[in-house]
Every structure is written in C-alpha cells, then in structure tokens.
Amino acid sequence: MKPINLIIFGRQGSGKGTQSLMVTEEFGSVHISTGDMLRAAIEQATEFGLQAKTVMDRGELVSDEVISGIVAERLGQSDVMQQGFLLDGVPRTLGQAESLIAVLEGLDLSLDLVLNLEVPIDEVTSRMMSRGREDDTEEAIARRLGLYEQETAPLLEFFSEKGVFEVIDGLGSETEVFERLNAVITRVISDKK
Ligand code: AMP
Q1: 131 catalytic, yes or no?
Q2: pLDDT (tens digit, 0 to 9) for every residue of the chain, 193 residues total?
Q3: Which residue among 68, 73, 92 has the greatest number of ligand 1 atoms within 8 angstroms of its CB, and so is best to mutate?
Q4: What's this model's pTM, rounded to 2 decimal places?
Q5: Which of 62, 141, 147 to mutate to test the pocket of ligand 1 (most atoms within 8 A of CB)?
Q6: Which of 2, 133, 162, 187 is labelled catalytic?
Q7: Which overall architecture, per CATH, does domain 6-32+84-192 show?
Q8: Are 66 and 91 in contact (CB under 8 A)?
Q9: Which one of 16, 85, 115, 119 has the fewest beta carbons within 10 angstroms of its own beta carbon?
C-alpha cells in the first residue's frame, strides 16, 4: 500500500484520538499526537513535562516553539518516509501550520489529505464531561473549546486552499465514523501517483 500523509482536525472530544488509532492501524501511517507526546513527557517527570503539565491542566496551549520543535524532530525520523504520517492534535495555531509546511517542504514530504472530523460543541462537551480525564474540568473544557474556535478553526480554511480537504461527519458509532474515514482515505490513496 502506498504511504499516505494526513492531518486530522476535530474538537477535543470529537473521537479524533480513537479514530486516529484505527486509521493508523489500517493504513500503517505513523501516528503523531502532540497530546500523547506531552503526556509521555509528564509521565517521565522531566522538567519539560512538568512545565507542560501546568499549561495543559489550565486548558491552555503549549508554545508554538516547543510544539513545532517536537513535531519537526518526529517527522524527520525514517519510519515517516516509509510509512507516511497522521498528525493528530497538531497544528493548532497558524504559527504551527506555517512551521509544519516549511518542515514538510524541507523533508520533501507531501500532504495528501486534511480531514475535519466534525462534531458539534454541545456533543463534544457532554462527551468530555463523561470521560473523566484529569485535565477535563468544566473550566478547562470551556477554555480548550474556545481556543479551538479561535486558533484552530481558521486553519481549516488555510488547509482547504492547500489541497485535498474533506469534512467527515463525526456523529454515530466508532465503526460508522471509521467507515466514512476509510472510504475517503482509500480513494485518496488510489488517486495518489
Ligand atoms: P490533546 O491530547 O490533543 O487534547 O492535548 C492535550 C493538551 O496538550 C492540550 O490541551 C494542550 O494543552 C496541549 N497540546 C497538545 N497538542 C498541542 C498543540 N499542537 N499545541 C499546543 N498545545 C498542545
């Protein structure tokens, strides 16, 4: 199978993380989740992890500089070239998006597909309230959703001008949502030269 390089957007609580795992399992691309990378740093109790934890617990964004650095480093590893990548939870700001484009150009990597997993705000709020993650306080949820609308939603337009962009309905069962993603990704792979 040809490697595919993609980004998945979606509000927190949209099922993006779960679907990303299903997609990478099916298509073999390397799953790059900045949230997972930051949580791993917290787990290891590095100084960097402790700093990130304060920001994450407040529902704020880690700096563009830090995020762009860890993403550039990961994209440069050899498995990405062979297997493709799926970016999950990044980019979240215009600064991150611009840095990403530059890194991809530098590594001669294409961007084949940008997905937006669409789930309305009311639905993601109730999903997050019930998942009970440590950083899911009501206040932090509201702040993160606000930041998403303000900082990340404008990127959808930015990327829709750059190439293949698809909105996927994120309502329904995990299997139903995955079938929608699968169909779009399969089509894009078969069109890839
Ligand atoms: P996530 O697992 O993607 O929901 O991320 C959890 C938290 O990690 C976010 O609320 C942010 O504080 C931080 N984070 C993850 N990815 C990014 C990013 N691309 N830019 C800034 N902060 C991020």
Answers
A1: yes
A2: 789 999 999 999 999 999 999 999 999 999 999 999 999 999 999 988 999 999 998 889 999 999 999 999 999 999 999 999 999 999 999 999 999 999 999 999 999 999 999 999 999 998 988 887 777 888 889 999 999 999 999 999 999 988 789 999 999 999 999 999 999 999 999 998 7
A3: 92
A4: 0.95
A5: 62
A6: 133
A7: 3-Layer(aba) Sandwich (3.40)
A8: no
A9: 119
